[in-house]
TrEMBL record:
<protein>
    <submittedName>
        <fullName>ABC transporter, ATP-binding protein</fullName>
    </submittedName>
</protein>
<comment type="similarity">
    <text>Belongs to the ABC transporter superfamily. Ycf16 family.</text>
</comment>
<keyword id="KW-0547">Nucleotide-binding</keyword>
<dbReference type="InterPro" id="IPR003439">
    <property type="entry name" value="ABC_transporter-like_ATP-bd"/>
</dbReference>
<dbReference type="Pfam" id="PF00005">
    <property type="entry name" value="ABC_tran"/>
</dbReference>
<dbReference type="InterPro" id="IPR010230">
    <property type="entry name" value="FeS-cluster_ATPase_SufC"/>
</dbReference>
<dbReference type="GO" id="GO:0016887">
    <property type="term" value="F:ATP hydrolysis activity"/>
</dbReference>
<dbReference type="InterPro" id="IPR027417">
    <property type="entry name" value="P-loop_NTPase"/>
</dbReference>
<dbReference type="InterPro" id="IPR003593">
    <property type="entry name" value="AAA+_ATPase"/>
</dbReference>
<feature type="domain" description="ABC transporter">
    <location>
        <begin position="2"/>
        <end position="246"/>
    </location>
</feature>
<keyword id="KW-0067">ATP-binding</keyword>
<dbReference type="GO" id="GO:0005524">
    <property type="term" value="F:ATP binding"/>
</dbReference>
């Protein structure tokens, strides 16, 4: 599904990613861990196509197609979802209306007609039930006065509705209280399937107790320095990133 080859990227004069290789297949959950400043958010931004970062070398191939030059919207339309790190507030636009628009824009980009209203309602009902989201929440203004947990709930709802092939969840170190943690992990676990893949980016092992990854990769100074199974996350939690730095003498 996603193949990243020798990816180098950065901003202006600063190299941040220094040769990333990563292969994500349908049905897999990958965790990317690493200390603060190692380039985790940059990697997710570059996969999603954020324009402030420049790819200087390497390829991002999604479903057999090189997407290096694709705009963020094109990537989203092709099925790549990036959780919002800093969600915008849109007063007057409800959670439901926002997602309806997003879905219909995606369909339009794929040459499809708008989703019929009854089908949309059915989808909203199905996904909100799955994620235990109540009606009141759906009619609130987007992100306006949302708690951390509610922002997460909205994000996961968006993910559920858009049914991306590849979801990248950049869980910033702050703001993931136990409530949010449960919302994110329940949502991801309910949406896992053999056809989609999830990349979870996290500083802490804690999230991975709930979302059990198939693969764990450690990012240090812009490179994946170690990959393994879920036990690698436990080892890191126990020994810390400094242990790995020493072991690799970087
Ligand atoms: P992480 O998510 O692992 O904490 P980031 O990808 O946010 O790491 O950052 C990696 C490095 O790149 C850091 O040194 C950070 O300061 C720098 N960096 C990332 N984005 C920018 C930016 N837009 N402008 C300047 N420096 C940036
Ligand atoms: Mg950071
Ligand atoms: Mg980050």
């Amino acid at each position: 599904m996603l193949t990243i080859k020798n990816l180098h990227a950065g901003i202006e004069e600063k190299d941040i990613l220094k040769g990333i290789n990563l292969q994500v297949n349908p049905g897999e959950v990958h965790a990317i861990m690493g200390p603060n400043g190692s380039g985790k958010s940059t990697l997710s931004s570059v996969i999603a196509g954020k324009e402030e970062y420049e790819v200087t070398e390497g390829d991002i191939v999604f479903e057999g197609e090189n997407i290096n030059e694709f705009a963020p919207e094109e990537r989203a339309h092709n099925g790549i979802f990036l959780s919002f790190q800093y969600p915008v507030e849109i007063p007057g636009v409800t959670v439901t209306n926002f997602i309806k628009t997003a879905i219909n824009e995606t369909r339009k980009a794929r040459g499809l007609e708008e989703m019929p209203a009854n089908e949309m309602l059915k989808l909203i009902r199905e996904k909100s039930e799955l994620l235990e989201i109540d009606r009141k929440f759906l009619s609130r203004s987007l992100n306006e006065g949302f708690s951390g947990g509610e922002k997460k709930r909205n994000e996961i709802f968006q993910m559920a509705m858009l049914e991306p092939k590849l979801a990248i969840l950049d869980e910033t170190d702050s703001g993931l209280d136990i409530d949010a943690l449960r919302i994110v992990s329940n949502g991801v676990n309910k949406l896992r399937s053999k056809d989609n893949a999830v990349v979870v980016i996290t500083h802490y092992q804690r999230l991975l107790e709930y979302i059990v990854p198939d693969f764990v990769h450690v990012l240090l100074d812009g490179k994946i320095v170690k990959s393994g199974g879920k036990e690698l996350a436990l080892e890191l939690e126990e020994k810390g990133y400094d242990w790995l730095k020493q072991e690799l003498s970087v």
